[in-house]
Write a structure and sequence with these properties.
Length: about 80
C-alpha cells in the first residue's frame, strides 16, 4: 500500500483530476465523456488491482465533485456566474 503513495503515482492521479476539472469547465456532457474515457483508460492500462482501485476512486470522486459544482451553477440567474 505504501508503494501507491509515491510521487509519480500521486502526480498521475492529479492528471486525472485536472482532466476532469477542465472537462467540467467546458460542460456537463464533456465531463461525462471524460469520466467514461478515464475509467476505460484505467480498465485497459492498469493491471495492478490496488492501483486500479485507487485511480478509479480518484476519477469517481473527481467526477462527483466537479459534477456537483457544475450542477449548482445551473440554478443561478443568468449573468451571475
Amino acid at each position: 500500500m505504501i508503494a501507491l503513495l509515491t510521487l509519480p503515482v500521486l502526480l498521475y492521479q492529479l492528471l486525472f483530476v485536472l482532466i476532469l476539472y477542465i472537462a467540467s469547465r467546458v460542460g456537463r456532457k464533456t465531463l461525462l465523456t471524460a469520466f467514461v474515457v478515464c475509467l476505460l483508460w484505467t480498465a485497459t492500462h492498469l493491471f495492478f488491482p490496488p492501483l486500479a482501485v485507487l485511480q478509479s476512486a480518484v476519477i469517481g470522486i473527481s467526477y462527483w465533485w466537479f459534477g456537483r459544482r457544475t450542477q449548482d451553477t445551473r440554478h443561478l440567474p443568468p449573468g451571475s456566474e
